[in-house]
Amino acid sequence: MGSTNESAAANGLIAVLFITRSRPGPRLNFHYPARPQWPIPVKSRKERNANSGSDSESDLAADEALQHKSTKDTVPSPEPPVEVFQPAAGLESGSLASKVDTTPARLLGYSVENLERLLAPGKWSDRKKFEVCLDGLTLLGHPVYAGQDGKWSADGKDSQVIDKHPGHALPETVDEENEDGDSTEMDNDVDAQEEYQGTTTTAKITITAPEDAKSSHDFTHIPESLDSQNGVSLATSLNSASTTSGVIHDRMTMFHVVFVVAANKAKATADLYRHVARKLGKALYYCQKQTNYVSTESRTIMTLKMKAKIERLSTDALYAQMLETSQLAWALKEVFDSISVGRIASIRLDGSEISLQIPLPGTESHLDGESVLGAHSGILLLEDKETLLRELTTGDTSPLAFFIREHTPTKTLQKHAVNLGLPVADLLYLARHLIKWRKAKAITPLNQRNYYVVSPEAPIQRVYDLMPEYATRFAALPSLPQMLKILSGKPIKYVMLMPSRDHRGPYMSILAYLVRHGFVVQLKTFAWLQCPKDLRNSVAATPRKAATPKSLLSPHLRAMDDDTASVNSDRTAIPHAILSERFKSRSRRSSTGTQETAVKDSPAGAVSGPLIIVNPGSPTHVESDAIDRIQVAISDEEVQRLVPSILPYLDGEKVLEELAPREGLKRSHVERALEVLEREGFLLTFRRI
Amino acid sequence: MLQAIFYARFDLAKGPSIIHQHPPNSVIPSATTQDSTLLNFNDISAYVIPDYEFCNLPLSIATHGSRMLGYPISIEDTKYARNRFTFNVCFLLDEEDDVRPWTQVVKKTAMFFRAMEEESSLLDVEEELSGLIWAGDKGYPAKDIGIVYPLLEAVFEQMNAYKEVCVRVDDLRVLNLRLSRPREIPAEVHGWDVPLLTRQLPSPAQWTWDLALAKIHPHIDGIKHVRRIAELADVEIRLVKRTVRELLYHERAILLDIFHFQAIYAPTADFAWFAKDAAMQEECANYIAVDPTKNGLAIHSDHQTSPTPTKETILALYASLTPGLTVQDFLLAKQTELSNIDIRRFITFGVIKGFLRRIHKYALAITSSTHITAAAIEPTGGSSSPTKTTKPRTDDAIPRDIDRAWRKAALSSGWATPPQTEKALATGSGSLSKSARSGEGSNHSESDELARHYLNGQHCLDEVCVNMHASERKIVERLQSGRIGEVLLFNR
């Protein structure tokens, strides 16, 4: 598991921002972490300096220092409140302010104000993918807008809350504040806000005049935004200066959770949008429609920020408060913390739980990407059954609980289906669900007669941690290091490790444990059919229709021609019986043992060797001849009968251990057949993970 | 594939507006026709001409299935109205296209336009030209007027046709662009990696080689590992690593593992592909063939063996490699078949082609022995042996730092650098002075001390061998001597 998590973790998530737009304009409501790890470009930019002369003060590292400095700055200048309300101002630069100019709050190396505008696209982006790449950063989100009339819900039950016509704005805002139990002083505040928008805007315009002119084009499609752009911070900040507990809330017309990602992860970005950003956006939209959740939460956050500003709380203290008070802030933190390291984020929004994750690549053991979950796969639970059952909210009687209780990693889903009396399709669905949420992984069912070896990605660093747990689980059995040592030697069938039949249960549990933690993987067997040299000689000796001109093109045919020549010239074929005799004396310890002998016994192997049939599906003439020959030559009748069903698997790409369940054959029969074929030299096998 | 290219500017009266686009009607619909456009410019105009803070930076946006790559440029000068001239040359691609090859093209184009404006005001002047028709207006484009439209057209046509652009604007300016896929930055090179050149390097006459490359080049042969190359060429290992990494970046070299007879190799999934590829097997046969009489490793049977092994033999031999089987055992088991095969080439061919993988051996300390210092271990369990664990120090940065510091000191003081002392040096800060005082006698315990740095299961034995200048067999002997406590050796 460890290694898979690491690979998924490389999604370069830097921060999560939460933007809302209300009548005064877009606003960065919340972001996590408080200080994103994004280096500010060292090279100061001409344009930035032109906008704000105090570029250097924006260094995030200097944050705390500034905070301290600001507490000493007891003389309130007329301007600080202006800056105070800028959402991130309290986080990034304290209230350090020069007498005439303000240091704009900065985030990710840009001014928060500009970022807010950048990340509040027009209504064209409503519930669509929004992706902007900015100098090494990708900003990705799923903006959600209120309906055409500014309403969030279709039935209009909370229409009084979200009516956005300016004329109706005031009283309804108040209503809403009252509803939510906030201060009733809001009346006055809002009045003040309205008044101040006109006057203070002009004060600021001198600082960023060209920008205003330009940015007016940004939101021409939003009627209110033109006049409200500059008012966003000013009006409300005035309010914050005038009251200690007041909250200004405007009807939110849009919200947007933005994921900030390092831009060089294009694939990760697509996944992040599909699996996290969009789902979160949809969930929030639902909550907003139902209970006005998002606007309530954003108001909570803004209140805290304002209070923190006034009380001159440190960023850390503010964050602690926000995370404690606002469920949404906590949810965003959880999303960031989990997604950035590739884990599943489980969050609670408005009382309902949702889980978000970027699925692991393939959601499979990444070493065998080709094996897709099917009826013949098994699954391995990655957590204990008890734990899983406890986590289940569906209750003990649900099919999922039933499946988990009865599950064993040694059976295919098909067998499970039969045992449980459920349709295979249902089990596949349950299995996919478990795999998707990383509670299980798809495997070839564990079998004691399979080969298992230590995985190249075995999390060896965890051996020390797991040893005590392992020791308590499997007391009086070989220790974890011992098992690893044995399984990293020459591959043997797992059953060979078991001292007796009675040990089967515990040893299979050990195996499941090792596979679950990624220590071992199955070593799979693959094979091709091969026609030994002498059999081919006999093919050549009895002049069949022989080589058609067409098959002359085959490289194998040439080999055969050589073969014939050499045989005719000086050598006699070793009688087949003798060969088989020798093979029988050999143990089948190494699959290649027979192969090796075959070559050894025919020193002419350098000139003419066996014919290997690499494409049993579409054999050439020579190859089908050889296949016929082999079938006739097989001594065992039962094996002969099995050959047609085995043959398609002998292409070097199909796992022989899966043959029996897929073809509905008895494993012991198939094994015996393969053994016979190999012993008689008709099989070239190799094993790989 | 470039879908469209346009030149937009901040107009004082109209705001962000497209002046030129190609193909015509691609973004701004013409007044006469009602063709559908690739995207709605009004939606994204804020991202074509953004806030000044976001100017002079790459800025792109994906929407409506297209991706607009831009590099807004804002030039500040008092000669302009409002003291600014802001424009952007944007490239429209399909949203799914890989943008990485384009980023440099977009940037270079932006810089080219910027230079045109800054040096000669060509962009500003163009708008004064009589007869200039703006995109979307009737009669657009007016092909003979101005330089921007022909330039965009040429970039668009040539880029889509050749993935290269060469346009001359005037006597001084030529825009050259080429779409090239940026290469992956190779991972760090280790001391125990073996570089192998896969392509000829341009001769020093054609290319100026850097000094390190010139010195190490004769030693890069697919056999010597980086540390050995450093020693033979007398180049600092850091420089060797950097040079090798450079060669990897330019795809001139690949990294192999150290070939030795205790190594283990096993086939990968690609082996099935190899078995089907007759040409590859032919190549393999020619590469690995060796005259049997000159093959010191093979027993010489009186059988006549042909100069090249057959494909079937090769396949059978590769198939018989399995986890847990060392090259040595493999060699002993297959002496006859291998008589006309160069075993090293046989293995490296598989590794190079990717159908063999090396299985490395790792060591993990399980129980402490009495003489391990307390600093190096943290016993976590009781006295029963399976739970009594040690956690060897994982910090191998320390020996390296000390090595470097010591070398620096040695060089500045004019000492000779005895190669012998290196392993003692790497043992850590405590043993530095100790090793200087005690002579040959303590060599063993120092090596064991060093070995403990590598016993956390994270360091393959190749690494240990290279750093300790010892063969794997010796290291294994030492690890199993009991002096270091119980050590688990495993392959993965």
From TrEMBL, chain A:
One of its GO terms (cellular component) is GATOR1 complex. Pfam families: NPR3. Residues 173-187 have a biased composition (Acidic residues). This is Nitrogen permease regulator 3. Its main location: membrane. Mediates inactivation of the TORC1 complex in response to amino acid starvation. Required for meiotic nuclear division. It is a peripheral membrane protein. It comes from Acrodontium crateriforme. GO terms for biological process: cellular response to amino acid starvation; meiotic cell cycle; negative regulation of TORC1 signaling; positive regulation of autophagy; TORC1 signaling. Residues 28-90, 163-187 are annotated as: Disordered. Keywords: Meiosis, Signal. Signal peptide: none annotated. It is found in: Vacuole membrane. It comes from the Eukaryota. The keyword Signal applies. InterPro entries: Npr3. Belongs to the NPR3 family.
UniProtKB/TrEMBL annotation, chain B:
One of its GO terms (molecular function) is GTPase activator activity. Residues 377-389 have a biased composition (Low complexity). InterPro entries: NPR2-like. Residues 377-399, 411-447 are annotated as: Disordered. Residues 428-442 have a biased composition (Polar residues). GO terms for biological process: negative regulation of TORC1 signaling; positive regulation of autophagy. One of its GO terms (cellular component) is vacuolar membrane. It comes from the Eukaryota. It holds the Pfam family NPR2. PANTHER family: GATOR COMPLEX PROTEIN NPRL2, NITROGEN PERMEASE REGULATOR 2/TUMOR SUPPRESSOR CANDIDATE 4. Belongs to the NPR2 family. This is Nitrogen permease regulator 2 like protein. The lineage of its organism: Eukaryota, Fungi, Dikarya, Ascomycota, Pezizomycotina.
